């Protein structure tokens, strides 16, 4: 007690010196602890023997700098890192990046024991299919949603695609008559968002009805991808915004948070409407995705847990996830397909010759079932997907018990470590694709083309692949085929840099 009293007196008598002493002590302790952690990471850590930049081996600073500060430029660094350090590169204390394409199908396969890395999947919407970390919950949700994305169901949505496309074309024609340039990517964003919103919850976002292709709204929604790396690496900012009153948070929130809040409102309304009417849209021709999820509650099967209750937060999270995935990546892919076809007139001409062989229906439409059977059109789409990638970078996974054997180094990566293989490194690898930097839709024709499907990773592979790939491809088929048979397009000179492909976890253009 005497010692404590004497200490108190010293503090009271010399508060300034005491504060400086405490600050100095804190700095010394913090620095010493950081040095100890760094020494452990480069000597005793399970990944200590794997090469990589020194800063990557001791901290996350290198990765945060290239991903958060430079906004997704880590992907561009990876080829150089592999040239310098080999097929396995340590890019942060607990993660290695791999360059061997063959390992992709080991890690990302059906019923893969390589589970999602929690660090990279903390953007919110944890009850959605894409953000779910639990493989059992993921499987149950996918069993509920899978029928919504079968080819038969997607083809039944053809009338919706054409209705929304016609609205876009009307706006494009209005600008063309005035001799004004068309912000085509914004137009595609309106198209894909209005299609997916109608299928999701039975109501169109009606972006195409807003002035100037809803540019302000589109920019707001696309801001989600502009801040995504900051949200992943600096979660404190996101959590701080979420803790604010909604009226305050709306001023500073990212597009993603606003989408989450919007979908919470839509989910609450959908539950009420479904209880009253039993379905959300009469002219869809089938149940909406929200209908499918809510109807699963009515299916009683005590032996099958996949029919667990789907509640409010499940709808809200799934709605936000599918709305973003079904809008941004599809619209961006259509934009790049348009761009590449305009850059290569010979390929555009081949495409038009093929489409001219399609017999239109009684309404003058190009039937989706016939577009789906066109080899060159699908070659154009696959080649665009190869170039752009829905997810250009890596989808990180945790190494399971037993480790991961890497033949190139004749060694194992220890269990519990995080691994990833970036899609771009495979899509532009001359070992998997000949002349990888040339836009060649014809590479996908014939039997050799079918073999290349093994290496088309735009929708990922295995049990965690993109559930909406059939819908995305159908939307692209309808838009590209009709766009080039309706309009005579040309690129606006001086905007080439706008087409730079950026890694914002999902593909993004400048």
Task: Chart the SSEs and their pairings.
Elements: H1 2-13, H2 15-43, H3 54-58, H4 61-69, H5 74-85, E1 88-92, E2 95-98, H6 104-107, E3 115-116, H7 135-145, H8 151-155, H9 158-178, H10 184-201, H11 211-226, H12 228-233, H13 235-243, H14 246-252, H15 255-277, H16 289-295, H17 312-343, H18 345-355, H19 368-371, H20 375-388, E4 397-398, E5 404-406, E6 411-413, E7 418-420, H21 423-427, H22 446-452, H23 469-486, E8 501-504, E9 506-509
Parallel strand pairs: 2-7
Antiparallel strand pairs: 1-2, 3-4, 4-7, 5-6, 8-9
Give the N-terminus to C-terminus distance in angstroms: 66 Å
The outline comes out as globular
| CATH topology term of the largest domain | Cytochrome p450
User: Which structural class do you get from the secondary structure elements?
Assistant: mainly alpha
Calculate Rg over CA atoms.
Answer: 26 Å
CATH first level of the largest domain:
Mainly Alpha
For the largest beta-sheet, the strand count, sense and barrel status come to: 5 strands, mixed
Q: Tell me the β content.
A: 5-15%
Report the strand count: 9
Mean pLDDT: 88
Write a structural description.
- Its cofactor is heme.
- GO terms for molecular function: heme binding; iron ion binding; monooxygenase activity; oxidoreductase activity, acting on paired donors, with incorporation or reduction of molecular oxygen.
- Belongs to the cytochrome P450 family.
- Keywords: Heme, Iron, Membrane, Metal-binding, Monooxygenase, Oxidoreductase, Transmembrane, Transmembrane helix.
- The chain crosses the membrane at residues 20-39.
- The protein has 510 residues and is mainly alpha-helical.
- It folds into two domains: 2-43; 54-509, Cytochrome p450 (Orthogonal Bundle), CATH 1.10.630.
- It is 56% helix and 6% strand.
- It has helices at residues 2-13, 15-43, 54-58, 61-69, 74-85, 104-107, 135-145, 151-155, 158-178, 184-201, 211-226, 228-233, 235-243, 246-252, 255-277, 289-295, 312-343, 345-355, 368-371, 375-388, 423-427, 446-452, 469-486, and strands spanning 88-92, 95-98, 115-116, 397-398, 404-406, 411-413, 418-420, 501-504, 506-509.
- The strands form three sheets. A five-stranded mixed β-sheet has the order 1-2-7-4-3. A two-stranded antiparallel ribbon has the order 5-6. Strands 8-9 form a two-stranded antiparallel ribbon.
- A hairpin with a 4-residue loop joins strand 5 and strand 6 (411-413).
């Amino acid at each position: 007690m005497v010692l404590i009293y004497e200490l108190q007196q010293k503090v009271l008598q010399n508060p300034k010196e005491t504060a400086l002493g405490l600050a100095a002590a804190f700095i010394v302790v913090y620095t010493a602890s950081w040095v100890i952690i760094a020494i452990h990471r480069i000597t005793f850590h399970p990944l200590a023997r794997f090469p990589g930049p020194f800063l990557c081996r001791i901290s996350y600073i290198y990765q945060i700098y290239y991903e958060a500060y430079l906004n997704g430029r880590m992907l561009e660094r990876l080829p150089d890192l592999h040239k310098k350090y080999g097929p396995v590169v340590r890019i942060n204390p607990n993660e290695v990046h791999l360059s061997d394409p063959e390992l992709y199908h080991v890690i990302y396969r059906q019923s893969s024991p390589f589970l999602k890395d929690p660090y990279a999947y903390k953007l919110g919407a944890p009850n959605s299919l894409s953000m779910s970390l639990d493989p059992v919950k993921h499987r149950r949700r996918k069993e509920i949603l899978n029928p919504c994305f079968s080819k038969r169901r997607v083809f039944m949505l053809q009338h919706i695609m054409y209705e929304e496309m016609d609205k876009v074309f009307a706006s494009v024609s209005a600008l063309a008559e005035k001799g004004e340039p068309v912000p085509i990517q914004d137009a595609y964003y309106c198209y894909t968002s209005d299609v997916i919103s109608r299928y999701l919850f039975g109501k169109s976002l009606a972006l195409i009805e807003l002035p100037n292709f809803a540019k302000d709204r589109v920019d707001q929604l696309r801001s989600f991808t502009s801040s995504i790396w900051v949200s992943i690496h600096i979660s404190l900012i996101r959590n701080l915004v979420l803790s604010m009153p909604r009226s305050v948070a709306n001023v500073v929130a990212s597009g993603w948070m606003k989408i989450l809040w919007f979908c919470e409102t839509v989910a609450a309304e959908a539950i009420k409407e479904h209880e009253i009417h039993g379905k959300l849209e009469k002219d869809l021709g089938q149940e909406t995705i929200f209908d499918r999820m809510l109807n699963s509650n009515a299916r009683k099967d005590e032996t099958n847990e996949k029919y667990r209750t789907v509640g409010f937060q499940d709808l809200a999270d799934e709605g936000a996830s599918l709305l973003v995935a079904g809008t941004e990546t599809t619209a961006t892919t259509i934009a790049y397909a348009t761009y590449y076809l305009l850059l290569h007139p010979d390929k555009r001409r081949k495409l038009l010759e093929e489409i001219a062989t399609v017999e239109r229906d009684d309404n003058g439409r190009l039937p989706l079932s016939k577009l789906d059977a066109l080899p060159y059109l699908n070659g154009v789409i696959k080649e665009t997907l190869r170039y752009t990638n829905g997810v250009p970078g890596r989808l990180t996974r945790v190494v399971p018990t037993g480790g991961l054997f890497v033949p190139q180094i004749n060694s194992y990566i220890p269990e519990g470590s995080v691994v990833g293989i970036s899609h771009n490194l495979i899509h532009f690898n001359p070992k998997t694709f000949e002349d990888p930097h040339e836009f060649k839709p014809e590479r996908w024709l014939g039997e050799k083309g079918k073999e290349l499907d093994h290496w088309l990773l735009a929708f990922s592979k295995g049990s965690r692949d993109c559930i909406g790939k059939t819908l995305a491809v159908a939307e692209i088929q309808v838009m590209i085929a009709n766009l080039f048979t309706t309009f005579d397009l040309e690129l606006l000179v001086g905007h080439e840099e706008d087409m730079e492909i950026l890694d914002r976890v999902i593909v993004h253009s400048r």
